[in-house]
Amino acid sequence: MKFKSLEGLRQDVQIALRGFRRSPVFTLVAVSSLALGIGANTAIFSFVNVILLKRLPVPDPERLVQIQELEQNKFVSTSFSYPFVHELAAGNGVLNGVFGRYPVRINLLSNGIAEPLSGEAVTGDYFKTLEVKPALGRLLNDEDIIAAAANPVCVISYSMWQERFSGDPSIIDRKLVLNSHLYRVIGVTEQGFHGSALQSRVDMQLPVSRIGDFMGGFFGSGAGQVTWQSPGFNWLEVLGRIKPGISQNRAEAMLQPLARQIKIQLADPNYRKNVANDRATLRMIDGSQGFNYPRTEFAEPLAVLMGIVG
Questions:
Q1: pLDDT, average across residues 83-90
Q2: Dihedral sign from CA coordinates of 133, 138, 139, 143
Q3: CB 67, CB 238: distance < 8 Å
Q4: Could you count the other beta carbons within 10 Å of the beta carbon of residue 235?
Q5: pLDDT for 310 beyond 50
Q6: What is the Cα–Cα distance from 142 to 282, expressed in whole angstroms?
Q7: 165 vs 41 pLDDT, higher one
């Protein structure tokens, strides 16, 4: 039976070759069309996979949600203050973790040369929420956020550890000069993790309390200046992890009264009545890709393009 199958395949190939020789132009057009079609589909699908289908390399990414606020005029706010994020993380009963983050540009000074890096200033529940483990050392926690005022620390990515420091295990407790400030490395994230934004590679995470080192002209500690703890300043993007067995709609509904209570509590006493009458609502969107804004912008055009190319 196997011999007959091979013989039939040989005969089919011979017939095809004779047909190709009789019609070389048709053969060229057919092969070229197939090559272009396959190439175009492969290229577009690769792009669709990265933008629409790929997820953060963390456990159960489908339970991650990005938290936003929808105003009455349909304006969507994606940023919250640090006190709001802290209170939301401490008081809710539907999320296993909530964290805020702000992307920063970092200059690593090495041998007199400044090397640009990409980083995230994060709150204490960042790694707990994403369920990321250390490859070496330990990761940031809530205690580091306050302690970092006198003891700046950072966590570097596995890729940076391998590429910049050749996987040297003595990297733990090494001091790095970041934007002219000394930071102590306390850990390395597990291999494959590059931060909470799928479309960008992050080299390190730093305590949110050190944001002034990277945006000193804006954040400060003097009178009248905005600080990382200012209750009225919304600047942190927020991601949470829904507990098993709780749907996104239920979690969203259960967080509404808590979010309103926190906003009233944090508001200036002179404006608490206005805040209480505010009808803005908390909402959740898919966070399986982390902070993936290209997905929101290009989802529909990519789907149409995939159909056309197909």
A1: 95
A2: positive
A3: yes
A4: 19
A5: yes
A6: 24
A7: 165
Chain position carrying tokens 């949110």: 208
Q: CB count, 10 Å around CB of 245?
A: 6
Paired sense of beta strands 95-110 and 175-178, if any: antiparallel
Helices 293-309 & 24-48 angle (0-180, nearest 10):
160
> Under 8 Å CB-to-CB from 16, ≥6 apart: which residues?
none
Measured in residues, the chain has a length of 310
SS (H, E, C) the chain: CHHHHHHHHHHHHHHHHHHHHHCHHHHHHHHHHHHHHHHHHHHHHHHHHHHHHCCCCCCCHHHEEEEEEECCCCCEECCECHHHHHHHHHHCCCEEEEEEEEEEEEEEEECCEEEEEEEEEECCCHHHHHCCCEEEECCCCHHHHHHCCCCCEEEECHHHHHHHHCCCHHHCCCEEEECCEEEEEEEEECCCCCCCECCCCCCEEEEHHHHHHCCCCCECCCCCCECCCCCCCCCEEEEEEECCCCCHHHHHHHHHHHHHHHHHHHCCHHHHHHHHHCCCEEEEEECCCECCHHHHHHHHHHHHHHHHHC
Q: What are phi and psi of 133, to 5 degrees?
A: -105, 155
CA angle 234, 187, 201 (to 5 degrees): 55
Three-state secondary structure readout of 152-211: CEEEECHHHHHHHHCCCHHHCCCEEEECCEEEEEEEEECCCCCCCECCCCCCEEEEHHHH
Confidence (pTM): 0.80
* Model confidence pLDDT, tens digit, residues 140-173: 999 999 999 889 999 999 999 999 999 999 999 9
How many angstroms separate the CA atoms of 55 and 197, rounded?
10
User: Which residues, at least 6 apart from 196, have a Cβ–Cβ distance to it below 8 Å?
Assistant: 56, 101, 120, 126, 130, 202, 239, 290, 291
